[in-house]
């Protein structure tokens, strides 16, 4: 049986509006299972509940109804909070809000230091984590002088230095240029493929969801669609109804098929399109 790292059952979350008495139901009954080692992409228009869902994964928010279980630990139980936060590392949108120290290596050491890890072991964890994000030679550099993509990789190094099982990234590339986005995606992808880290990647770049094993589409606080990238992005009309785009190549494929070209559905990358057209 595949081990479930994340199990969410009928999750409901409400916010009280600060202006008036109204209650916003941000999550209206979400069910989600994520297997160990899986790469899940979460997409959905603004306000669909993605960040709220992310914050439930490490007990930053607690369910109003339903449950969230991380490796068998129920987030509603206070005694589990510490263990859950150690197991689920979070990376957010703005790299500048996540970097605290004067050098890259001090920043990376911050997490394990707080966990009370021995200095010798911290050294090893920092070196190993910086290597895994491809920043070994940057260890003495000042984080604020790095590019956006490098800053996010330092943030990721700081998280993986705490040895989590799950990496949750909430639009980590939203503030980056195309080069930075590619760097971060390559890093996250390698951590998933080579280290078996379970990844939940929230993004509004459809091209990034193509990397995932499975895509979850959120809409109005509910899971609207779920499937492999190929399944999801061949449903062009439904995706558009949910105010989302499909990757450019999938869009082109949709147009060509409509015009009567005999192309297979589910083409997602330029390489696949070239092969299909040549046939
Ligand atoms: P997304 O990340 O998909 O943009 P969010 O989870 O941030 O969506 O928000 C879902 C809904 O909850 C939105 O309607 C948003 O306005 C509302 N919301 C989010 N955070 C708060 C908050 N702290 N207080 C009140 N409403 C909130
Ligand atoms: Mg958000």
Walk me through this protein's architecture.
This protein has a single domain, classed as 3-Layer(aba) Sandwich (Rossmann fold). The chain has helices at residues 50-56, 81-87, 104-114, 119-132, 148-160, 178-195, 206-209, 229-233, 236-241, 248-258, 270-278; strands spanning 4-16, 23-35, 39-44, 65-70, 73-74, 88-91, 166-170, 198-202, 214-219, 222-227. The protein has a six-stranded mixed beta sheet with strand order 6-7-8-3-9-10, sandwiched between helices. A four-stranded antiparallel beta sheet has the order 2-1-4-5, covered by helices on one side. Helix 3 (104-114) runs parallel beside helix 5 (148-160). With 279 residues, the chain is of the alpha/beta class. Bound molecules: adenosine-5'-diphosphate (ADP) and magnesium ion (MG).
Features of the shown structure:
binds adenosine-5'-diphosphate; binds magnesium ion; about 25% strand; 11 helices; 4-stranded antiparallel β-sheet; alpha/beta; Rossmann fold
């Amino acid at each position: 049986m595949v081990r479930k790292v994340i199990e969410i059952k009928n999750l409901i979350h409400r916010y009280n509006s600060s202006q008036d008495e109204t209650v916003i139901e941000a999550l209206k009954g979400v069910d989600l299972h994520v297997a160990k080692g899986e790469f899940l992409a979460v997409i959905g228009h603004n306000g669909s509940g993605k960040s709220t869902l992310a914050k439930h994964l490490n007990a930053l928010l607690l369910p109003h109804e339903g449950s969230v279980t991380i490796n068998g630990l129920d987030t509603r139980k206070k005694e589990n909070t510490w263990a859950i936060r150690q197991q689920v590392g979070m990376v957010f949108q703005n790299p500048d809000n996540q970097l605290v120290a004067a050098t890259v290596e001090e920043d990376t050491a911050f997490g394990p230091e707080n966990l009370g890890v021995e200095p010798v072991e911290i050294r090893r964890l920092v070196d190993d984590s910086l290597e895994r994000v491809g920043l070994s030679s940057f260890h003495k550099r000042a984080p604020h002088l790095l590019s956006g993509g490098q800053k996010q990789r330092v943030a990721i190094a700081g998280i993986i230095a705490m040895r989590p099982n799950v990496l949750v990234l909430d639009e980590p590339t939203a503030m980056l240029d195309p080069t930075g986005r590619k760097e971060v995606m390559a890093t996250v992808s390698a951590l998933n493929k080579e280290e078996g880290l379970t990844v939940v990647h929230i993004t509004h770049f459809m091209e990034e969801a193509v990397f995932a094993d499975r895509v979850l589409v959120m809409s109005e606080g509910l899971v609207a669609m779920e499937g492999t990238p190929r399944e999801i992005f061949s449903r062009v009309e439904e995706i558009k109804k949910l105010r989302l785009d499909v990757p450019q190549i999938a869009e082109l494929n949709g147009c060509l098929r409509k015009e009567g070209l005999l192309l297979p559905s589910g083409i997602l990358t330029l390489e696949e399109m070239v092969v299909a057209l040549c046939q």
